């Protein structure tokens, strides 16, 4: 297991549509282990493989520690979603302040369905479904968006989106000039 570098806005890889995983094997399991290690280190509650530069439909989520305010390993509730797809969503909407490991230190209120049903493969290659609500529903939708080249800033006003994109583009150019 290893912590991998995160892909940060304005990197164009964040706009790629990720490819389906054909089969769950040792390579996919190793990616998942690295994703969890990277996500916990960041710290974050969700991560899509594309955020590590891997354009495959793999998501890791763990809202357990955030919901319990307990940072111990006992509060962990890791979930792996391979080839996830939303197969149902509530009409009821909820608003959460979202952030993203690929857009550090920027947060905005995003409205999404309050509940979703997601079909996915687990680490054994078995098809499963999960009914998610609350923070888990928001996090799962956010990460599935990543697999489709969509960022949470695409759900806010164009003015705010343009401002944050310009800020991160400027930071990336500055970093490049500084040789970092």
Automatic annotation (TrEMBL):
It comes from the Bacteria. Its EC number is 3.5.1.88. Fe cation binds at residues 100, 142, 146. Binds 1 Fe(2+) ion. One of its GO terms (molecular function) is peptide deformylase activity. The keyword Isomerase does not apply. Keywords: Hydrolase, Iron, Metal-binding, Protein biosynthesis. CDD domains: Pep_deformylase (cd00487). Belongs to the polypeptide deformylase family. Removes the formyl group from the N-terminal Met of newly synthesized proteins. Requires at least a dipeptide for an efficient rate of reaction. N-terminal L-methionine is a prerequisite for activity but the enzyme has broad specificity at other positions. This is Peptide deformylase.
């Amino acid at each position: 297991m290893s912590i991998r570098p995160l892909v940060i806005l304005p990197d164009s890889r964040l706009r790629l549509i990720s490819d389906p995983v054909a089969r769950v094997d040792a390579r996919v399991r190793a990616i998942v282990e690295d994703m969890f290690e990277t996500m916990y280190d960041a710290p974050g509650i969700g991560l899509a493989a594309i955020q590590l530069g891997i354009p495959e439909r793999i998501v890791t989520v763990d809202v357990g520690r955030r919901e319990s305010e307990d940072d111990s390993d006992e509060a962990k509730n890791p979930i792996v979603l391979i080839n996830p797809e939303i197969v149902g969503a509530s009409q009821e909407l909820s608003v959460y302040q979202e952030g993203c490991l690929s857009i550090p230190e920027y947060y905005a209120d995003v409205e999404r369905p309050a509940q979703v049903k997601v079909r996915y493969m687990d680490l054994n290659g078995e098809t499963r479904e999960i009914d998610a609500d609350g923070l888990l529903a928001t996090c799962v939708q956010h990460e599935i968006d990543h697999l489709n080249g969509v960022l949470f800033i695409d759900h806010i006003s164009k003015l705010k989106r343009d401002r944050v994109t310009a800020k991160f583009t400027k930071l990336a150019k500055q970093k490049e000039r500084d040789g970092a």
